[in-house]
Write a structure and sequence with these properties.
The protein is mainly alpha-helical. It has seven helices and two strands; from the N terminus they run ααββααααα. It has a domain at 32-128. The protein has helices at 5-13, 34-43, 64-70, 75-84, 86-108, 114-124, 139-149, and strands at 48-50, 56-58. A two-stranded antiparallel ribbon has the order 1-2. β1 (48-50) and β2 (56-58) form a beta hairpin.
Length: 150
């Protein structure tokens, strides 16, 4: 008779079964054609929702992490599926556009603090912080370069 691994690991650690109940892991979620549809539905949300008092408040910014938690998969599984299934890849691109638009719209009306909005925009979307630099050379440096060439 085979001894369950849980019993072996408990015996090695000097614990009884009641002290160490390992969480059961179910069968992995399988990819279905519904996943891209669920992704779009999750990201396609109103900018505002009503709170308990009936006041309009900004809706939560949808994220891949929250979507994955909602369908009980790891984000790593999502990204593997994204590489494997073209219809999910297309839906993911659309979802990222929806997320970016919601971030922009709510940021423009001041729903997010400026620093937070900028952080999310740079780290979650394809937006980048642009730094413009100019290069100038002083007249003394120009003369020095010309003199060195002689």
């Amino acid at each position: 008779m085979a001894v369950p691994l849980t019993l072996i690991s408990c015996a090695k650690k000097g614990k009884n079964m009641e002290e160490s109940k390992a969480p059961r892991v179910g069968a992995p979620i399988k990819y279905t054609q519904e996943v891209p549809k669920k992704l779009i539905e999750f990201f396609d949300r109103d900018l505002f929702i009503q709170n308990i008092d009936g006041k309009a408040v900004p809706n939560r910014l949808p994220t891949i992490e929250r979507f994955c938690a909602n369908i009980n998969i790891a984000t790593s599984t999502f990204y593997e599926w994204n590489k494997k299934y073209p219809e999910l890849s297309s839906a993911f691109k659309m979802a990222k556009q929806m997320q970016k638009d919601q971030l922009i719209q709510l940021s423009l009306i001041g729903a997010y603090k400026e620093g937070f909005a900028k952080f999310v925009a740079i780290n979650v979307t394809d937006m980048k912080d642009r730094i413009e630099t100019s290069h100038s050379v002083s007249e003394d440096t120009k003369k020095l370069i010309i003199d060195m060439g002689d």
